[in-house]
Design goal:
- By secondary structure, the chain is α/β, with parallel strands linked by helices.
- It has 2 domains: 123 residues, Leucine Aminopeptidase, subunit E, domain 1 (3-Layer(aba) Sandwich), CATH 3.40.220.10; 316 residues, Aminopeptidase (3-Layer(aba) Sandwich).
- 36% of the residues lie in helices and 21% in strands.
- Strands 6, 7, 8, 9, 10, 13, 14, 15 and 17 form a 9-stranded mixed beta sheet that branches. A 5-stranded mixed beta sheet has the order 2-3-1-4-5.
- Helix 6 runs antiparallel to helix 11 and helix 11 crosses helix 16.
- Keywords: Aminopeptidase, Hydrolase, Manganese, Protease.
- One of its GO terms (molecular function) is metalloaminopeptidase activity.
- Belongs to the peptidase M17 family.
Length: 460
């Protein structure tokens, strides 16, 4: 992978970023022969297109299309598409873009260097770029590397990414950044008070566990909780084959919080970070938990199981209860939790819930700045009765099929009673079709928006 900027060198090819509106003005400043060359090539500054101006020793300059304002609203990271279209070389950016708009394009360039090549060789992207002097290149590289970690974890198949391997990834991250980590495994989950994590994971020969990582000794406290269901068969309510095909990504919440944690630690943000990951495999065996079972959670709330395929909220509930026992300044959970969220907003938007409107506003503003789209959903209290079955305190899978993402969020909120500021993300974690800087496969959602918003959320 190539997730860094090139060192400054004497041989740099100017790379001009152009929109269709600016093209004619740019051409008018070129020598007539070069302008004729560009026009004859058919270059019209459309998204991802490239035109090379020949020089005496090869390429004199490169023109790259970003498209119109409408094009850029429809597809972000245009410079990522440009990178894959350029020949080998070291480029120097020539553009009027500044601030957030420039950072978006530079991050797109970096992310276009991502390759998941663990199992098959993949041609590297050879085009390199010297970072402009006035950008925070180290921050952009840290973000790209955090996103790459998230993608790698999601893309790895479940035979190589079970609870133990997810723990190993967390331990490697902790070691790299001087964080402390402890893990509760198997039967110890029962004695240590995590009965629902144990119940969901006990059918698998791969022992369930709770990963607890801590970093930082100063500043406000941020706790991240990520769903780590490394594969989800659906349990005894087994999924049909078509619905099971992507279930290696059901640990996308864990992958995303680990990627975000990597960004935070690499940037040495002045905060105290805690990461909690319940890591399980929801398997089928004689030990599997059953429909109509009633489980008692760490918080003491009882939960009637009406669908063993609604397991993510169960493992998150025990982890959230633990986080809530020592309330942080801000608590965030991330999970590939419901198909209802995908039906509502599709794969590109990350739905989120927030207990305070100020936090929601800060997150939405940050998402716009860093091109990491989110969509606020409501904690709609009239639906609370839908998760109250009568025979137990809570129902893990209300009947009727309505408002599935909202009822799941309401369920989780029941386990956060001492922490005033709580945000929950119901992400997809997967890019179904290739897009600039985002190949088909695992993808982080919401992490960059959270990172950008932290300065306001935690007054850093």
């Amino acid at each position: 992978m190539s997730l860094c900027f090139a060192a400054a060198s004497a041989a740099q090819i100017p790379l001009h970023l152009l929109t269709p509106d600016a093209l004619e003005s740019f051409l008018s400043d070129l020598p007539q022969a070069e302008a004729r060359w560009v026009r004859a090539s058919g270059f019209a500054a459309q998204p991802g297109t490239v035109c090379l101006l020949p020089g005496g020793e090869g390429v004199k300059a490169a023109l790259a299309g970003l498209g119109s304002d409408r094009d850029r609203r429809r597809s972000r990271f245009g410079l990522g598409a440009v990178r894959t279209a350029l020949p080998d070389g070291c480029y120097r950016l020539e553009t009027d873009l500044t601030g957030d708009a420039l950072d978006e394009q530079l991050l797109g360039w970096l992310l276009a260097g991502y390759r998941f090549d663990t199992y098959a060789a993949s041609a590297p992207v050879k085009a390199q770029l010297v970072a402009p002097d006035h950008v925070d290149a180290a921050r952009l590289v840290a973000i790209a590397e955090g996103e790459a970690l998230t993608r790698d974890l999601i893309n790895t198949p479940a035979n190589d990414m079970g609870p133990e391997e997810l723990e190993a990834a967390a331990r490697a991250l902790a070691e790299a950044h001087g964080a402390d980590i402890s893990v509760t495994v198997g039967e110890a989950l029962l004695s240590d008070g995590f009965p629902m994590i144990h119940a969901v994971g006990r059918a698998s020969p791969r022992a369930p566990r709770l990963i607890d990582m801590r970093w930082g000794a100063r500043g406000p406290v941020l706790t991240l909780v990520g769903k780590g269901v490394c594969f989800d068969t659906g349990g005894l309510n087994i999924k049909p084959g078509g619905s099971m095909g992507l279930m290696k990504k059901d640990m996308g919440g864990a992958a995303t919080v680990l990627g975000l944690a990597k960004m935070i630690m690499a940037l040495d943000l002045p905060l105290q970070l805690r990461v909690l990951i319940p890591a399980v495999e929801n398997a089928v065996s004689g030990a599997a938990f059953r429909p109509q079972d009633i489980l008692t959670s760490r918080k003491g709330l009882t939960v009637e199981i009406n669908n063993t395929d609604a397991e993510g909220r169960l493992v998150l509930a025990d982890a959230l209860a633990l986080a809530d026992e020592t309330p942080p300044d801000l608590l965030i959970s991330m999970a590939t939790l419901t198909g209802a969220a995908r039906v509502a907003v599709g794969p590109d938007l990350a739905p989120f819930y927030a207990t305070t409107e100020a936090d929601a506003a800060a997150l939405k503003a940050a998402a716009g700045r860093v091109a990491d789209p989110v969509w606020q959903m409501p904690y709609w209290e009239p639906y609370e009765k839908m998760i109250e079955p009568g025979i137990a305190d809570l129902d893990n899978a209300p009947s009727g099929g309505f408002a599935g993402s909202i009822t799941a969020a309401l369920f989780l909120r029941r386990f956060v009673t001492g922490t005033p500021r709580y945000m929950h993300f119901d992400i997809y974690g997967w890019n179904p079709t290739a897009a600039p800087a985002r190949p088909k496969g695992g993808v982080g959602q919401g992490a960059r928006a959270i990172l950008d918003a932290l300065s306001e959320l935690l007054a850093l």
